[in-house]
Design goal:
Elements lengths: L7 E4 L7 E6 L6 H7 L9 E5 L18 H18 L8 E6 L1 H13 L4 E6 L20 E7 L7 H13 L3 E7 L8 H15 L7
Parallel strand pairs: 2-3, 2-4, 4-5, 5-6, 6-7
Antiparallel strand pairs: 1-3
Helix pairs in contact: 2-3
Length: 212
């Protein structure tokens, strides 16, 4: 049986967009959920949204904080290829913002460390690296790539130490990093996070670089 991995497309047409925004869903979610909880809260003028779809509702089986296994590495490779294909839909020279929530945020972080930097920015909304520090993992230098890393102090899926470790790795990779930790926030995307993303989109649509 063929598995559906067709992305969801929203906003401006890819051929005419000033910015392409790739929004990656979490475990057990869908592009449609990201359309409701993220894209519908943003101004779409000038932006083409590409929302990749995991074949079985998740991008890999393990928890993000589990040690990497051969199975997880293989699943990650396939999922990262989907994100790479989504980002490649942007016309030449058009900036790309890679956005992920929860498991999608973890996958987006891995995308940055595998394929970064690029023109645009990266948003990891409640994410961390996949695996543990002892694992052999890709660590591309990010050369000033604007990265927004957010989380909560008591998130049930992304422990604060794993979040902090990701922040340290992003700093070591020379990302231009902004981090926010929200005390007591549920496992969701807050209005503050949406506001930061909207500001980044506005800057890129107007031809500027993301600043923070």
């Amino acid at each position: 049986m063929t598995q559906n991995t067709t992305p969801l497309f929203l906003g401006d047409a890819l051929q005419s967009a000033a910015v392409v925004c790739v929004v990656t869903h979490g475990r057990g979610q869908s592009p449609e959920a990201m359309a409701e909880h993220i894209v519908s809260r943003l101004n779409t003028r000038g932006v083409s949204y590409v929302l990749p779809r995991a074949a079985v509702g998740s991008w890999y089986d393990a928890r993000a904080i589990d040690p990497l296994t051969d199975k997880t590495r293989n699943q990650l490779a396939g999922s990262l290829e989907q994100l790479k294909q989504a980002a490649a839909m942007a016309s030449a020279g058009v900036p790309v913002i890679m956005v992920g929530f929860s498991q999608g945020a973890c996958l987006t972080l891995e995308y940055a460390f595998h394929f970064g930097p690029w023109r645009g920015a990266m948003f990891s909304l409640t994410g961390c690296r996949v695996g543990v520090p002892a694992d052999e993992r890709s660590n591309h230098q990010l050369a000033g790539l604007p990265v927004y890393l957010s989380g909560a102090d008591q998130d049930p899926w992304i422990p604060l130490p794993a979040f902090a470790s990701a922040a340290l790795e992003l700093g070591a990779a020379q990302a231009r990093l902004r981090t926010d930790v929200f005390p007591g926030r549920a496992h969701e995307v807050s209005d503050c996070e949406i506001s930061v993303l909207q500001s980044a989109l506005d800057e890129l649509v107007s031809g500027k670089e993301v600043q923070w």
